[in-house]
Amino acid sequence: MTRLTDAQIQAALDAKTKPLGALGRIETLAADIARFQNTLVPRMDRCGLIVFAADHGIAEEGVSKFPQAVTRQMVANFLAGGAAANVFAATAGVDMRVVDAGVAGEPVLHPGLINRRIGPGTGNSVAEPAMSTAGLAAALDAGERLAEEGHYDALAFGEMGIANTSAATLIGHKLTGAPIAALTGRGTGLDDAALAHKTGVLARASARTPDALSAEETLIEYGGFEIAMMTGAMLGAAGAGRMILVDGFIATSAALAATRLDPAARAAMIFAHASQEAGHKILLDALGARPLLSLDMRLGEGTGALLAWPLVRAAAAMLRDMASFEAAGVSGPA
Fold this sequence. Notes:
Layout: H1 6-14, H2 25-37, E1 47-54, H3 69-80, H4 84-92, E2 95-102, E3 113-115, H5 133-148, E4 154-160, H6 164-176, H7 180-183, H8 192-207, H9 215-222, H10 225-239, E5 243-246, H11 249-261, E6 269-271, H12 280-286, H13 303-321, H14 325-328
């Protein structure tokens, strides 16, 4: 297949009835979509959201302001349509699926819940690997298969799991080499004393393994089942020709792992927003990413990705449907 060149894409953008570059980063976004879809008439008509939920053994160390039971409670809230992700998805016309990747306790029984649970939460990574090699393989495979289902131009991925900012911090630390202290954020709203405690816990967890690990080793030692499944979903989406709307800090840790497993997946990624989590910028910089939005958000659930979806649709429609100077009979620049 002949690939479009950047020069061809730029020429198509420059021919539209506007001053050169007048649509700013919407033009950059349109170019990214055209490049990925390999067409000057790209379509971004349908987006799906998958929210992965799982629990983390490291929650035992008191790294979160909320109890682990909140993960299960929030799954029920998603299924009842009451979470921010539900509201934003409905507003944006985005289909939403909820996946039990490994919520603590007995399996959640609900006809609207997709059961892909690897286990009832991960191990406590301060003392042991978060998951087995087989557990990682199962999570990656489940995520990849879920991302291949349905008919979508783009997929957004969200998560729910008490203590998952701790897992994301450790993933970022092992894959970038950035200091734990620089990456550790307040998560669900920790005060200064609780933040210092969390930082100390994560330093102890990090010290259990070598400074640098592969993506597979990192996910085994420190990942969450929802983060590992999201990593697989990103690889599956990219392989299926679907663009990936990357949400905040936790989703970006999955994106970093995915690009280490398959660097080609990076071309499918659109980074939705800059999270307030301390380490997010470090992960974005490691990926060479510039997010579309900066709204002081730090919720997760895919909420930032959902808010970015209308911009993605508009960028594709602009390149596809906006008239050229020639077609519109408008005089171009002198």
